Amino acid sequence: MRYNIFKTAFLLTIGLLVTKQIVAQEVLSLQVCKEKALEHNQTVKSAVSDFKSSEASLKLSKRAMLPTFDLTSNYTYLSDPNQMVIPGYELPTINGQPSGVYSPGSITDLAYTNSYSANLGMSLPIYMGGKLQHVKTLSKLGVQLADDNLDRTKSDLFLDIETKYWGLVSLQEQKMVIEKSIELLTDVLKEVNNRYKTGIVTKNELLKTKVELNNAKLSLIELNDNIELSKMSLNQSIGEEIMSTLQIQDSIIIIPNHLSDISFDEKQLLGRSEVKMLNTQLEMSKTQKKLVSADYLPQLVSFANYVSQNPDHYGKQKNDFTFNAGVSLSIPVFHWGEKKLKKHIEQRNIEKAEYELDQSTELMTLEIHQAIFKLKESLIKLDFTETSLEQANENLKLERNRLKQGVSTTRELLNAQLQWQQSHANFINAKTKVKTSIAKYYKSIGQLNS
């Protein structure tokens, strides 16, 4: 009695733990998978780091226009400073005769045993030929470039997640079809077995039915393996443990109805991160050329210093604090054509950026057209497979009824069942193709960032 009570309590505890684990398991939607992938993906993290770095560079370029303050100091100790020995001598008289008065010799230090200096200086650029403003413009463009690169990285990641997610949904939907096929074949096998016992059909037909059922069971085993591998791949992409249990929200692929209205518009190119990046790089090349010109313009800088030193060459007293201020003007005069050559190099960089922009725009226009064609093609194939599926369903019903009426053979029913299973597989694959084509289309127009 006590053993039964203990056994019952143990089983209840295990049941509660399992139930708690099942309840706690998160069901992941496509959007949640994307959010998890963003948190985990190292390439996205790297792009975020580049963006934050470019923001810091922009702040630095703005602060370069502000005055800077620097404190410098030094101290020197000489244990044996150089000395000058002055010998003693007899003081002369007016007529040059000996006076009998003797001046003693002396020793004078030529250097200080302890010398130090402290300087608090301020420097403020007044005019740098527009160089600081151009650097600020380059930093702003750098922030924009990093932001567009981050969007492009996210878009690539989201396309990968959508492909894996809908691929997993497709496999799970095909699993339901095969399970239904096994159920149908099991019923057929019972029917054929009964007919075999009564002598209506031969053993060969019974064996054919068993082979088809075994093939379906083998397909289910292979499909289960593919489902597990697909879950592992998705787990890796969203930052979960490779072998952790994964449950997704969708089980059947549903296709929206507004896809046939999609068409090409040149404005769609403006949404592409790649186009934005190439335009930004072109602007950066133009600004870089202006920066070269600024390097060869006059530069005016003001400064002020508050100084204390020993020995003090400025103050009247040994420990006086002295102040000085002024401006510094630098004018480039002759550099052997350096400015012209540098501007020539930057002009070539501008032309190169323009060529890359033109070529990439053409290729991306082609990519958008291809994405639209592939999407419309997948929609047409979906209609065909849906029609074939309806026909396969009707044909299977017909053959099952004919077999029961004794006017059809087992082989014809098995062929109808195989056609039904293949039609379902084609229909599911067509739906998956539509889903991935939708994702590729939105990526091609730069709208796959959420």
From TrEMBL:
Keyword Ribonucleoprotein among UniProt keywords: no
Coiled-coil intervals, chain numbering: 375-406
Family in the record: Belongs to the outer membrane factor (OMF) (TC 1.B.17) family.
Gene3D superfamilies per UniProt: Outer membrane efflux proteins (OEP)
Keywords: Cell outer membrane, Coiled coil, Membrane, Transmembrane, Transmembrane beta strand, Transport
Subcellular location: Cell outer membrane
Protein name: TolC family protein
The organism's place on the tree of life at top rank: Bacteria
Keyword Transport included in the entry's annotation: yes
Pfam families (alphabetical): OEP
